[in-house]
Specification:
This protein has helices spanning 2-16, 22-25, 29-39, 50-53, 57-62, 69-72, 108-124, 135-138, 165-178, 183-189, and strands spanning 47-49, 76-79, 83-86, 90-92, 101-102, 106-107, 129-131, 148-154, 196-201. By secondary structure, it is α+β, with helices and mostly antiparallel strands.
Length: 203
């Protein structure tokens, strides 16, 4: 499909620049060497399910390894390399952010936007979407007709995000996935010591 052909173009673009430099990838030293090696050997590279591949504070507090497989499939990741992946889709080791500008494709959030929007909107006709995306990933999706809400975690000063927001976001995502109630009910009752939810309709 279109996702596959676009993914191949990203793979070829990364290979064409030797996997990327410190400025593009945002890492240096041994991390840069590993990232360049991964980015230049993506075709046929070993994969693991997205929920194992992706790490960080959000995933740590989501605890995907303890979720039922059917729940993991409801997780959708927006990816600079792959466009969109479900929680159990196979993902190779790579490093490229959605906000990166990758020659000759340009800024990946802009480059991916049409296909991501088309694919997500089609899927969202059967689902109610809870958008917990970071700002750089949110830039790759322009919803048209999708049913759902966008969530920002607001700290006591009124600012979105903050140091502990990723942990809170992981806990919130887990609560939504594991509750037998509808998502809006979960959002209405959710509480956190540091954050309140700003809930807006998708637009």
């Amino acid at each position: 499909g279109s996702l596959s052909s676009l993914r191949l173009q990203v793979v070829e673009a990364l290979a064409g620049i030797g996997g990327g430099d410190e400025q593009l990838l945002g890492v240096g030293g041994d991390h840069l060497l590993r990232a360049r090696s991964a980015n230049t050997s993506l075709l046929g590279a070993p994969t693991m399910p997205a929920w194992r591949r992706y790490t960080g504070v959000v995933w740590e507090h989501l605890e995907p390894g303890t979720l039922d497989a059917t729940l993991r499939r409801r997780i959708v990741v927006v990816s600079g390399l792959l466009g969109l992946v479900r929680g159990d889709d196979p993902v190779p080791d790579y490093r490229i952010k959605m906000a990166a500008s990758l020659p000759p494709l340009g800024k990946l959030s802009t480059w991916w936007r049409e296909e991501i929007s088309r694919t997500l909107d089609r899927s969202a006709r059967q689902s109610f979407v809870i958008d917990l995306l970071p700002k750089e990933h949110r830039a790759a999706w322009r919803p048209t007709g999708a049913r759902g809400v966008r969530i920002e975690l607001i700290d006591p000063s009124g600012k979105p995000g903050g140091h502990f927001a990723k942990a809170a976001k992981g806990r919130l995502a887990r609560a939504i996935l594991t509750s037998e109630r509808d998502a809006l009910g979960v959002l209405g009752d959710w509480s956190d010591d540091r954050y309140v939810l700003d809930i807006q309709p998708l637009e």
